[in-house]
Design goal:
Length: 68
């Protein structure tokens, strides 16, 4: 089982990668950096919360784990 600290670090590092992907994609699509940054930051805030909750729920189940 992952610790809460590990889940938080995984959440932060993944959100950095995902936010950069969102910002770059929206910027390439619109050409507007302020729209890209605003969208990326709002999406990041919401997705961080949902990802953390998702990880904690999965951490409570043994589905797909092998017992050694």
């Amino acid at each position: 089982m992952d610790t809460r600290k590990r889940t938080i670090i995984k959440t932060i590092t993944w959100r950095i990668i995902a936010t950069l992907t969102t910002v770059i994609t929206i910027y390439l699509w619109t050409g507007d950096l302020s729209v890209a940054l605003g969208s990326g930051l709002v999406a990041n805030a919401l997705k961080t919360i949902f990802y953390y909750a998702h990880e904690r729920v999965w951490n409570r189940t043994d589905f797909g784990r092998e017992i050694k």
